[in-house]
């Protein structure tokens, strides 16, 4: 009897050992491969490169949003809302001073875009929602005649249809991309100016085909104040 119990106990121990080893091997097999990189480097990703995919999760949303032809923007209105080409756009509507920080006001409409009942229009999307102090750069339009024209070098805004490197090739990027590295924020959805609204936002890796152009970076000479030419 003792011999029989001993044999049964041995089989039970062997069976439990088998189940334990098999379960461990099975769990190890489910683990995904990974690259053990330790982030000890002081060199960070270039912001202009790291922000390309920030709006990629909304690409199909922009594709499916209907275009509001009565309120859609054009390049004329797009540039008219800036002090000069490349300047931050001004705020064309009243702002509640009690809630003027990004997360509490501006970003509610401008972080991801979409239709706003208050203005009956699609809100333009900011390419840098992480900078929440919006009014540090974007100011309200209080007057159209505040400043007098100076003699600063005039920078012409890019035009559509003349930025292709070759006939039939994808248009190049005719502007600087610092703080504008996320292409879909300005080029996708119904809030994008109609002339530069992309027809294929689902291809989120824009810079795979569209490369920056530095044509606008031209020598303008040494700036001299009026009356101090010598």
Structure report:
Strand 1 (114-116) and strand 2 form a beta hairpin. The protein has six helices and two strands; from the N terminus they run αααααββα. The protein is an all-alpha fold and 230 residues long. A two-stranded antiparallel ribbon has the order 1-2. It has helices at 2-30, 47-50, 59-64, 75-80, 106-110, 184-187, and strands spanning 114-116, 121-123. The longest helix has 29 residues, at 2-30. It is 23% helix and 3% strand.
Order of helices and strands: HHHHHEEH
* Unreliable residue runs: none
Count of DSSP H/I helices: 6
The biggest beta sheet, please?
A: 2 strands, antiparallel
β content, as a range? Answer: under 5%
- What radius of gyration results from the CA coordinates? 29 Å
Distance between the termini: 117 Å
* Class derived from helix and strand content: mainly alpha
The coarse overall form would be elongated
Strand order of the largest sheet: 1-2
Mean pLDDT: 80
| Helix fraction bin | 10-25%
Task: Give the oligomeric state.
Answer: single chain
Number of strands: 2
Keywords, separated by commas or semicolons:
single chain, 2 strands, mainly alpha, 230 residues, 23% helix
Summarize the structure.
The chain has 230 residues and is mostly helical.
SSE arrangement:
Blueprint: H1 2-30, H2 47-50, H3 59-64, H4 75-80, H5 106-110, E1 114-116, E2 121-123, H6 184-187
Antiparallel strand pairs: 1-2
């Amino acid at each position: 009897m003792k011999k029989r119990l001993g044999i049964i106990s041995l089989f039970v121990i062997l069976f439990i050992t088998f189940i334990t080893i098999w379960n461990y091997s099975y769990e190890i097999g489910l683990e995904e491969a990974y690259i053990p990189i330790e982030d000890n480097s002081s060199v960070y990703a270039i912001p202009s490169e790291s922000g390309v995919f920030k709006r990629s999760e909304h690409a199909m949303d922009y594709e499916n949003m209907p275009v509001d032809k009565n309120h859609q923007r054009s390049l004329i209105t797009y540039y008219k809302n800036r002090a000069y080409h490349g300047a931050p756009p001004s705020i064309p509507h009243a702002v509640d001073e009690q809630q003027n920080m990004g997360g509490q006001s501006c970003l509610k409409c401008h972080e991801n875009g979409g239709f706003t009942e208050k203005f009956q229009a699609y809100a333009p999307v900011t390419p840098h929602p992480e900078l929440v102090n919006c009014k540090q750069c974007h100011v309200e339009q209080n007057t159209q005649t505040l400043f007098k024209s100076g003699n600063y070098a005039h920078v012409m805004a890019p035009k559509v249809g003349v930025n292709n490197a070759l006939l039939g090739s994808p248009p190049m990027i005719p502007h600087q991309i610092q703080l504008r590295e996320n292409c879909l924020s300005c080029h996708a959805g119904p809030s994008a100016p109609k002339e530069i609204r992309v027809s294929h936002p689902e291809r989120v890796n824009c810079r795979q085909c569209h490369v920056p152009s530095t044509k606008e970076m031209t020598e303008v000479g040494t700036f001299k104040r009026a009356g101090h030419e010598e």
